[in-house]
Records
---
Amino acid sequence: MSAARAVLVPFLVTRALVAVVALGAGAIVPPSAAICRNACDASSIAILNVASRWDGDPYLTIARDGYRADNPSLVAYFPLYPFLMRIGGALVGSDDAYLAAAVVISNLALLAALVYLARTVMLDHDATTATRAAVYLLVFPTTVFLSAVYAESLFLLLAIAAMFHARRREWLLAGALAALAALTRPFGAVIALPLVIEALRRPIAIRGLAATLLAPATFFAWLAVLWLITGDPRALLTAQAQWGGRPGLSLQVFADLFDPTIYGFPYVVLGLTILIGALVLISWRVLRPSLAAYATAVFLVAISTGSLTSAPRYYLAVFPAFIALAVIAPGWLGRAYVVLGAAIGMVLTAMFAQWYWIG
């Protein structure tokens, strides 16, 4: 079975379900009063409207107007995704065109990421395991972000593709993809870690080690650009602080889970954190060191932002966790995960569509 055939049906079924639930919620679920006292619709087109909640607005602003010194909080959002939105919507130039481009980019990137995920799994396992890994990712409860106006799918595509081509020792392509990942999410340069581990395998690949420098170099180059735009050498940290980010690993983030003014559903956040953390540990036993190291690094980043309010979304980037789950849970445990994940995912999708915070 080809990688594309292994993932196409799960992709189509889950994306259709996400769209139906989001549109249905938009029609029948009351919106969050805290957010929607004023007009909160980004588009008159229903599917674009429900897909553009929360971070959709900053991405739309950047795609339309670019980064500006008088709006420094926007530099928390990295440039590749809104740049592609601008290209995709440039012909028409309207907000709807930019949002439509964003939804298309997210979903095409997701499909390509799933193909790369299946191809990566097939390097070590069979096609059935590859399909399970794709399904397990697609039914993770925060799956709505993979199709919304968010950069999650684009980052997944670049990270998985970089790892795949590193495995094939296609170093220049792997390094270029890692560099693009560094322009997609603030923690994108982490992809350099598994590339270094692959390059250090016997025989050591000097070209591979050189290619791994592209991601951190691109990251620091972007920080320099932000300094020029804002005049603030710490522009990224300043912007993250404006959005409530307090980088650092602290037990306080777990204590905050049970503060009702911060979290409306702490047990879901805690449960997903325990699940992904356990799978990260298991990945060291069942996956290659490079994949396990990447999973560990991204998981630690996700729980080190000073809050777990966005962690359930960040866990989507920990793709080796879903591979590990596919390896260890081929039977009833995997089916139970699919049913429970899909059920919670439908609830969270409906909440997202009506401006309730889910990550």
---
Amino acid sequence: MKTIALVIIVLLVVTYTSLLVLRMLENARVNRLRKTLQVAQASKKVFSPEMIEGLPETAQRYVHHAIAPGTPLSRRVEITMTGEIQPKPGGAWMPFTAQQIITPGSGFVWQATARQGVLSMQVTDSYAAGVGKMRVALFGLIPMVSVSNPDVSKSAAGRLAGETVWLPVALLPINGAVWEGIDRTHARVTVSIDGMSTTVTLTIDEVGRVTEVVFPRWNDEKRAFVPFGVIMEKEATFDGYTIPVKIRAGWGFGTDTYREFFRATILQVRFY
């Protein structure tokens, strides 16, 4: 019996040590990604209305509302948020807190801790250098999901395109954004990320506030690009940028299969 108990203890120690090593390796990977996304030197340019001359009126209304004249053209944004997520249809909503860094055109890292009762999960969603990865670890140690493949990368690149509204500078023509007017309250903007172009449709009110964002995003379960929509419920201004700070999002936006699974409120924003 002592021998069996000793073997079990050794196995537990080895398993725990292995899980710790895996977590350390993952943390090192994420830290490397964050460093690649942290632009060393901020742009010396500032926003001026001349930068959007010739754009459709709806697009100009949005940009004028989102960026105040004289605002430095930041290259990245770092966000702290809280909210809730529903991993499975009909399942429980799990509260979370998260930190995110977004460098438009380059990548993002979203790190969250979600809880359900006594259970705690650490979630990391990332994209950089054309590679996306999703990792979910129970109690931050036990890997439940760890996947990185071309489909994950396509979905992550779509997410990066859709989240440009958190750094409106990315939607200026000088940064490669191509606008197309639809009507008084809708416009499309196409952004390119690592050779993949994504067209984002924005709903914009008379003030210039963006109220909805819809874009095609790869869904691995359906093996196709699916309309992904974000509803903007509230906005706030930080350092000359007016951005959404309360959102709801889901797959199949505008269809009978729409499923909202993500709700978030932005607590802190820093532009660099």
---
Amino acid sequence: MSLRHLVLLKFHPDTSADQAEALATGLRELPSIIPEIVAYRVGPDLGLSDGTWDFGISADFADVDDWATYRDHPEHQQRIRDLVLPITAERMAVQIAT
């Protein structure tokens, strides 16, 4: 079963544009490091409507094992520690079959 991992982040109010860009840049490096990633899209909300979250991540995997490899990969975990956690007030995630 292939799957899509979706994550939404709500930043702390004092998060700078530079911090958000550093997050996007750091995450965009992951597909070249973790071969189990089939497709990967990340970026800030476009601000087209009220009530949205600040940042989104969409990652596709061939199967649950490949997603687990990504989830636990040291490079992914480092980016969570260094780039996600310092600026994130809330996180929401879901994995769906594709």
